[in-house]
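Entry 14. Ran structure prediction on the chain below.
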Amino acid sequence: MLNSLHNKGIKELSLLLSDKTISSVELVTYFFDRIDKYESQIHSFISMDKDYAIDKAIQADKLIHRKESNIITGIPYMVKDNISTKHFETTAGSKILDGFSSNYDATVVKNLNEHGAILIGKGNLDEFAMGSSTENSAFGATKNPWDLSRVPGGSSGGPAAAVSAGFSVFSLGSDTGGSVRQPASLCGITGLKPSYGAVSRYGLIAFGSSLDQIGPFTRNAEDSKLILDIISGKDEYDSTSRGLSSEIIDDETNILNGLKVGLPKEYFSEYLDEKVKDSVMDFVSFLSDQGAVIEEVSLPHTDYALSVYYILAPSEASSNLSRYDGVKYGYSENEVDNMWERIEKSRSNGFGLEVKRRIMLGTYSLSSGYYDEYYGKAEQARQIIKSELNDIFTKVDILVTPTSPSTAFKLGEKLSDPMEMYANDIMTIPANIAGIPAISIPSSQVNGLPVGSQLVGPYMGDAKLLVIANQIQQLTDWHLSNPQLS
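Output, structure tokens:
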């Protein structure tokens, strides 16, 4: 049993800790032993600190001994390196923030730490969360634990790979257009994007402020609910936060029987790999066998979602990233003649190619004479997409779609074609545009690689979505498969 601790969920590990079968020190040591053995192959971490984690584990064991612990006390976790932490540097995967230390913890980190969870390190990511493969990091690419020649997805590839490989019990990522769900699908784990505003973004380095949301990577939906309950809530430091609704869903009843499931036909288009499509349809057949009512629906404006996103997100990024100028903090070119040359050279040399590409796209969209033509129209289209999705939930309880149009692709395969890379988010972007919750759960494999199915719910319908996902996982074993590392 103690040789497979990395395959266990939070509840089971918490029970082992509370009945003294293992100590938190032993649990943390176990995970660092796996990191020592396999991390050099995968590169899921940007930073880690075993001594710090062991010290926190000693404190957790004291709380457990005094019976002052809760369900995540003593449990190791990792966060994406665009989430601010006091103890670890926060780089956002960029040269321009290499060596930067925050003087505070993000609200989500503060909440987890106060519950006794043990932060062991920071996860690799596409620079400033801009990418779908975690190949755009200034600190090198992360590899998929299922096949080291393939990507883990992005931009939260490090946190996804860490949970998949058994380096941490859970992790946190950020999801602006699919950056939790897509890597969860490619790495064979569960990834949740909560409703916009459910979780505080205070301490998250902003990419697209109207789209960003922090969400957990876990081994199962039950763990996702446990973590969401802890990190969600209104925060005085984030004016867009409101927490979750107080709706309580009975997870003892068979919620799948009679569940109205919508299949949006636009998600099963030419972008979708045929084997992935067949796999997702097998998942839909399983739902039907459990009594779910399956109905094909249409979301015609979904076809515009990718274009809308790649105007709105770069525009917001252009504004958010203007603060990185080589003057206030971060990377700076010092051998210059004046301040303007410092700003130009610092940004030119500090940002990577993809970040510079998106800054230029966004700046153009916001520029005089083009704002109404691009950003203004994209915002109008966003409202149409949002309204369309809100309306569909008056007819169905959830939507089921593929999470990603393909399984994990080869490292380097799409780097030379930005448009092909951007298309990896085509299934996940609409939920961010509308601010609604969505979760990717493992639903099968194709040629030995994981496939995830995406469940999408109405705004603030997170609780019901998680109960549905949990009941599916209680009846199936897709989420129990693990990569074989050697």
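The chain has a mean pLDDT of 95. Will compare against last week's run tomorrow.
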